[in-house]
């Protein structure tokens, strides 16, 4: 280490600049990656009853999953109840290039769902007026998992790595006169903030000091539900933008030269969402539900890390990620439930649903990025059995869900020779033509999306939920 440090002291100004720049570029390439985003409910829904309706449930949800779908729905909980469920999911989403097709997997394809809800046992005017609930979605392998991607790597940003985190959703609801109820839920996790300092110590070995903290971060889910008539219910739900900040400042002293890095990212991102829901009781023991949803994806700064640095003799260098213009999405979901069997001791309910959502990632990406997406169709079905047992009820709900992505193609654009285009707008020939080197002739581009890349396929999920309630 001593000889290495002495060698750097002997470099001239140009050499020190080159070394500093090389270190910065290497560190930037290592850190120029995508953080985790969102959670299981945002991708596959929460709860078998609600997922079997393709998520068309804002005005009809009535269990612990209301913390996500509509916290005001907790006001429909008649007795204390507890639930335990499992969810498995997988991907057949394709990455198609000329002469090559591969599947984009989803990591950690299993989760445990735990929840409970109950009226707060007040008496008098507060009897059955206040309700509490909590929902947990647990990934057994880890609390949070981050899978990194470079800007040019093809992947599905709305599916890849969106399910690998613990979900904690406590909620509270109040039932008001005239069929109104209000609810609020808290989407909780933590972010990372702090700094790392590294410099040669007394023995000339590199010594590091780390000062990092895990800071709390909350997002709010709020809802209002109105039982307009005996047959019709309406709901309005707002889900606050949710993102976990990952920010670290690294102060380094290499060969007597200070090299500082600032790494900044927004992980676990979910946009602001508004949902308008309705549920209608129909003849023949049918219940229909319809949800309309808007998601503010245009506020998303993109799934890449920003790295900036202050280098000696060079000054500020910023490794800015490509700018990607996500677009707001609009969705519609419809569900139908049929009470097929209604007996004093047993019930059987059959459910089905369909949903459609527009595309969030840009439909045109002529430059370096290969963020795959497309309009989505959701098809769902399921069933629920409810048995009267020992003064309470035992309920088993199962569901299956299929998300089909329409095929889309991204075609790359080649910038004119000698130009320096925005990396998001075009690709450049990586090797200038040299008649003495035949391998350089023509267009040399290593981007995996060149000349075009296509997306499409489907993702699936299967789940079951067991619920016990008692008086």
Describe this structure in words.
- By secondary structure, the protein is mainly β.
- It has one domain: Beta Barrel (Porin).
- Helix content is 8%, strand content 51%.
- The chain has five helices and 19 strands.
- It has a 14-stranded antiparallel barrel with strand order 1-3-4-5-6-7-8-11-12-15-16-17-18-19.
- A hairpin with a 5-residue loop joins strand 6 and strand 7.
SSE blueprint and pairings:
Elements: H1 2-9, H2 13-31, H3 40-44, H4 48-51, H5 66-69, E1 81-97, E2 100-104, E3 110-119, E4 130-138, E5 167-175, E6 180-200, E7 206-227, E8 232-239, E9 242-254, E10 257-270, E11 273-282, E12 286-295, E13 306-311, E14 315-319, E15 329-342, E16 346-357, E17 376-389, E18 392-411, E19 452-470
Parallel strand pairs: 6-9
Antiparallel strand pairs: 1-2, 1-3, 1-19, 3-4, 4-5, 5-6, 6-7, 7-8, 8-11, 9-10, 10-13, 11-12, 12-15, 13-14, 15-16, 16-17, 17-18, 18-19
Chain-averaged pLDDT: 82
Residue share in β-strands: over 45%
Number of helices: 5
> What sequence of helices (H) and strands (E) makes up the elements?
HHHHHEEEEEEEEEEEEEEEEEEE
Tell me the CATH topology: Porin
* Spatial ordering of strands, largest sheet: 1-3-4-5-6-7-8-11-12-15-16-17-18-19
Identify low-pLDDT runs. 1-37
- Regarding CATH, which class? Mainly Beta
Shape: elongated
Largest β-sheet summary: 14 strands, antiparallel, barrel
User: Count the strands?
Assistant: 19
Number of domains: 1
* Portion in helices: under 10%
Q: Quote the distance from N terminus to C terminus.
A: 72 Å
The class by helix and strand makeup works out as mainly beta
């Amino acid at each position: 280490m001593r000889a290495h440090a002495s060698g750097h002291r002997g470099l001239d100004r140009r050499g020190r600049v080159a070394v500093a720049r090389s270190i910065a570029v290497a560190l930037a390439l290592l850190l120029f990656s995508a953080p985790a985003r969102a959670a299981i409910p945002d991708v596959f829904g929460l709860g078998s009853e609600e997922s079997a309706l393709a998520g068309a449930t804002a005005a009809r949800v009535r269990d612990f999953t209301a913390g996500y779908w509509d916290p005001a729905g907790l006001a429909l909980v008649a007795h204390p109840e507890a639930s335990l469920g499992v969810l498995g999911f997988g991907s057949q989403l394709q990455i198609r290039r000329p002469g090559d097709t591969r599947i984009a997997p989803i990591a950690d394809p299993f989760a445990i769902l735990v929840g409970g809800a109950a009226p707060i046992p007040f008496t008098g005017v507060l009897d059955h007026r206040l309700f509490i609930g909590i929902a947990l979605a647990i990934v057994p392998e880890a609390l949070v998992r981050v899978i990194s991607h470079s800007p040019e790597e093809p992947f599905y940003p709305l599916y890849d790595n969106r399910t690998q985190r613990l979900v904690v959703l406590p909620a509270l609801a109040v039932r008001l006169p005239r069929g109104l109820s209000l609810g609020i839920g808290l989407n909780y996790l933590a972010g990372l903030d702090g700094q790392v300092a590294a410099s040669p110590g007394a023995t000339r070995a590199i010594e590091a000091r780390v000062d990092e903290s895990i800071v709390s971060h909350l997002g709010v889910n709020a809802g209002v539900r109105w039982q307009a008539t005996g047959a019709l219910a309406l709901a309005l739900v707002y889900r606050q933008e949710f993102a976990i900040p990952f920010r670290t400042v690294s102060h380094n002293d290499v060969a007597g030269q200070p090299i500082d890095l600032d790494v900044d990212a927004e992980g676990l991102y979910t946009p602001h969402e508004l949902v308008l829901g309705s549920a209608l009781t129909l003849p023949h023991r049918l219940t229909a539900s319809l949800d309309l949803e808007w998601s503010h994806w245009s506020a998303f700064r993109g799934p890449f890390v920003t790295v900036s640095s202050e280098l000696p003799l060079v000054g500020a260098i910023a490794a800015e990620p490509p700018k990607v213009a996500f677009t707001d999405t609009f969705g519609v979901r419809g569900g139908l439930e049929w009470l097929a069997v209604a007996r004093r001791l047993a019930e059987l309910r059959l459910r089905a649903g369909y949903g459609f959502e527009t595309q969030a990632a840009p439909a045109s990406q002529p430059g370096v990025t290969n963020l795959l997406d497309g309009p989505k169709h959701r098809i769902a079905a399921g069933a629920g059995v409810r048995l009267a047992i020992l003064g309470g009820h035992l309920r088993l709900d199962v569901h299956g869900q299929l998300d089909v992505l329409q095929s889309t193609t991204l075609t790359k654009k080649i910038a004119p020779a000698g130009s320096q285009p925005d990396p998001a707008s075009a690709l450049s020939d990586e090797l200038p033509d040299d008649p003495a080197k035949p391998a350089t002739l023509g267009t040399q581009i290593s981007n995996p999306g060149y000349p075009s890349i296509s997306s499409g396929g489907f993702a699936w999920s299967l789940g079951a939920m067991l619920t016990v309630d008692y008086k």
